Structure formats: C-alpha cells, structure tokens
C-alpha cells in the first residue's frame, strides 16, 4: 500500500488509541487547534476509546472518522481530503482490516481496491488509472501475491501477466502497447 494509506490507517489508530495521554474513564474528550477549531473528538468507556472518533483539518473539515470498540478499530473508517472529498473507506474488526478497502483520487474516481481478511491482503487487489482504466490486478493470499496477476497500459491493453506462488512470480508474459507478445 502507499505511504498515504499507511498514514491514514495510523491516523485512525491514533484516534482510537487516544494519543498516548492518560484517558478519561467515560465520556467524550475534545481537543482543539490553537485557533479554536476542533482537532479531535473521542468517546471513552472504561478508560478505553470506544465508539466514534473524529479528526478534523485546521479548516474545520472532517479528516478521519472511525469506530472503535475496547480500544481497537472496529467498524467503518473513512478519511477525507481537505476539501471534503472521500479519500479512503475501509472496515476493521477487532483492530484488523476486514473486507474491501477503497482509496479514491481527488476527483472521486476509485484508485485502489484492496481486499483484507484478518488484517492481511486476501483476494484480488486492483489499482485504476485516473481515467478509470484498470492499471493492475493481483491475487493475494495471507498477505502475499498468490495466483494470477495482470498489469495494463493506460490505454487498457495488457502489459504483463503472470502467476505468483508464495509471493514470488513463477511465470510471466509481456506485451507491447498494441497487445503483441514481447519476448522476455
């Protein structure tokens, strides 16, 4: 995954974990930027982040909203660009990514679809060019490429296809922009 996505997931963890400060036992905790705009808001139950947690940009727009249960991410997490456009959405269960996480370009078109099971990439992961054409799709099992994978040119023609086994490519074919086979 990209550094930006890792940052968003870390931000969601930060929201749920409560910044490393001594947490309040129960209720809502709100923190503000120096300019008075709300920065964070978190709910606590029995001293652990629980329920909805939100982080805001300094302009007041929502940056991240996530759910937690007993101090772990649990449920839907969404992150937004500063202009309010959706950037990321994914679900967590017991602190681990679960199901399809989606990342969006600023124009609202889908950029990445990453499948998770028990916190590991599992199933087909896809990336799209900004024009909407598929850039690549690779099958994962337990966090490693396993099975088929394909990479496409921006015009939609196949560039490379291969077979992965336990994270290593064991067979591959290459094509030029016109779709003609190219020797390895």
Question: Could you walk me through the main structural features you see in this protein, from its secondary elements to its overall organization?
Answer:
- With 184 residues, the chain is mainly beta.
- The chain has one helix spanning 3-17, and strands spanning 27-32, 38-45, 48-56, 62-69, 72-73, 75-80, 86-93, 96-104, 110-117, 120-121, 123-128, 134-141, 144-152, 158-165, 168-175, 181-182.
- The chain has 2 domains: 1-118, Histone H3 K4-specific methyltransferase SET7/9 N-terminal domain; 122-184.
- It contains 1 helix and 16 strands.
- It has a 16-stranded antiparallel sheet that branches.
- The mean pLDDT is 89.
Quick summary of this structure?
The chain is mainly β and 184 residues long. It folds into 2 domains: 1-118, Histone H3 K4-specific methyltransferase SET7/9 N-terminal domain (Single Sheet); 122-184.
